[in-house]
Amino acid sequence: MSISLALTNGLIVTPAGVLAGHAVVVEGSRITSIVPVSAVSPEITMDVGGAYITPGLIDAIRRDTCAATGPARSDTSSEWRAEE
To answer: Cβ of 19: how many Cβ atoms within 10 Å?
Structure first.
């Protein structure tokens, strides 16, 4: 059984710009649509309080490279480590 969730009251970041007054609709574990808030009829609505919503951003990040940091390094000796 798939549960429908709508993320509302956020600023949705898309390639075309930032959308306000829209909702991100999630069914199960997938984003299915971005619609005007007036068109929302999910089982659950979550007010994100004006936070930025970046649908699909996780798909843009790959483990072996990142636009912000460049190619992954095999030498991790200089990385910060939490104190034990």
So the answer is: 16
Total domain count, the chain: 1
SS3 29: coil
Helix/strand/coil for 57? helix
Give the strands of the sheet with 22-27, arranged side by side: 30-36, 22-27, 4-8, 44-47
**The domain spanning residue 31 has which CATH number?**
2.30.40.10
Find all residues with CB under 8 Å of 19, minimum gap 6, and list them. Answer: 11, 12, 34
Residue 50 inside a domain? The answer is: yes
* pLDDT one-digit tens code per residue, 31-55: 999 999 999 887 899 999 999 999 8
> Would you give the DSSP letter of residue 84?
-
User: What's the predicted TM-score (pTM) here?
Assistant: 0.65
The answer to whether residues 8 and 37 touch, using CB atoms and an 8 Å cutoff, is: yes
